[in-house]
Amino acid sequence: MQAQVTWTSSQADNFGVTGPLSSLPAAQVISSTNTAPFEAEPPQNAAANNGAQDIALQSTHISMPVVADLSTFSGIGLGTIGFSEMAYPSDVNGAVGSTQYVQWVNLAFAVFRKSDHAMVLGPLTGNTLFQSLGDHPCAHNNDGDPIVQYDKLNNRWILMQISHSNHNTQGYWQCVAVSQTSDATGMYNGL
Prior knowledge:
Low-confidence stretches: 28-40
Strand content: 25-35%
Distance between the termini: 38 Å
Structural class: mainly beta
Largest sheet: 5 strands, antiparallel
Strand order of the largest sheet: 1-9-8-7-6
Number of strands: 9
Mean pLDDT: 77
Helix content: under 10%
Oligomer: single chain
Number of helices: 1
């Protein structure tokens, strides 16, 4: 017997429009006291895996890239002015548009020009996109878990993150911002 799948949908409970993001100063991302890179510790004994050895466990790092990148550049991360990683492991997400690349790492995002890889906006805190919603959890909380998409058919950016900081009283929210044009540094509709 197959489980019944049910869907729930609802109208957006709020709506707002940002000013052009390019007119905002780069936000100060709160610095973390933990600046050491995160490294996961592999299990030390086979007993944790019911006696089986993990055949995928590697003891050395690859010294060279397996595939040569045709176009690379440094995104936001440790060493970027105004950015400090606050969550480990990093939750990196990004998308490529017609002329720009948008990268979102946990709690902050930035816009890069594809032609010369220059950062043209940011880093900005994720909840910057939702300030026009006023007294709303998406405007107050910057909880990360980002998703960045570029809609090639409509030439729009779709940027999302969750809000759950005060889950005991506010619940859980999916915060969605859709650009009004193909310019990721322009105005967004916040839902």
